[in-house]
Write a structure and sequence with these properties.
With about 220 residues, this protein is an alpha/beta fold. It has nine helices and five strands. The protein folds into two domains: about 170 residues, Rossmann fold; about 40 residues. The chain has a five-stranded parallel β-sheet with strand order 2-1-3-4-5, with helices on both faces. Bound molecules: flavin mononucleotide.
């Protein structure tokens, strides 16, 4: 099996969490004797080259982060430039995000489920997993440790069943946190995390409260 892997994050490769996840996944592919080539859409100059790889190959995997509960705008723009192909091509997805509950990636997954049909190709399933906010700020050893589970998913994918097997479905982890956990997180976000975000915003020059309802002020805009 030869897989074309496309990083669908707008973030430059060097800082992209998706990029680190792809590296681990690709290790798994290699372990099982599959080969791969990788691309990233963050640099528009490479789009022509990526399109060519998409046209020439039959096993395509788009790995992408969840941005604002759905698909990054830059990826949508890139997808619009892809030509229609036929069912010899299989298109699979690896959807990852910051927050950990599986439920909040389902809207994005739903969109991706429908996409292959629009492109005329076969759907190879979608691997769904959150809890990836911090990857890029970890040191190399920790990054490897955190992304290691994706290696097993690469091995699984190389066996040819896309992401339809039970192991891939279980990989998501909890669909919802337990009630005590949700209450605890709510408390943290309303107190410590809120303070931390406000401080970070202030360091970037923002002096208005982050939860300000600008539509309730007269002008809706401040100096
Ligand atoms: C603009 C933006 C919007 C985001 N929206 C969400 C979101 O709705 N839900 C979520 O769980 N994570 C969200 N995240 C977090 C990313 O999905 C997460 O950090 C991901 O690992 C980033 O991958 P990347 O570095 O390859 O872009 C968002 C990040 C950014 C920058």
């Amino acid at each position: 099996m030869h897989v074309v892997i496309i990083n669908g994050s707008p973030r430059v490769q060097k800082y992209s969490n998706t990029e680190k996840i792809i590296a681990s996944f690709a290790k798994g592919l290699s372990e099982k004797g599959a080969s791969f080539e990788t691309y990233a859409i963050s640099n528009r100059k490479s789009w022509e080259m990526i399109r060519e790889a998409y046209i020439k190959n039959e096993e395509i995997l788009i790995a992408l982060p969840l941005y604002v509960e759905c698909i990054p705008g830059l990826l949508l723009e890139f997808l619009e430039t892809l030509p229609k192909k036929d069912e010899h091509t299989r298109l699979s997805f690896l959807l990852q995000s910051g927050f950990a509950e599986g439920c909040q990636l389902r809207c994005g997954e739903e969109f991706l489920t429908k996409l292959p049909e629009y492109l005329g190709v076969r759907y190879g399933g979608c691997l769904v997993k959150g809890d990836n906010f911090g990857i890029r700020i970890l040191d190399e050893a920790k990054q490897e440790q955190v992304t290691k589970p994706y290696q097993a998913m690469g091995e699984l994918f190389a066996e040819g069943d896309g992401f339809f097997r039970e192991e891939a479905k279980k990989f998501t982890g909890p669909e919802y946190f337990s009630l005590p956990m949700r209450l605890m997180l709510q408390f943290v976000f309303k107190t410590f995390a809120k303070k931390m975000f406000q401080k970070a915003a202030a360091s970037l020059g923002c002096n208005t409260p982050l939860d300000e309802k600008i539509w309730e002020t007269n002008s809706g805009c401040r100096e």
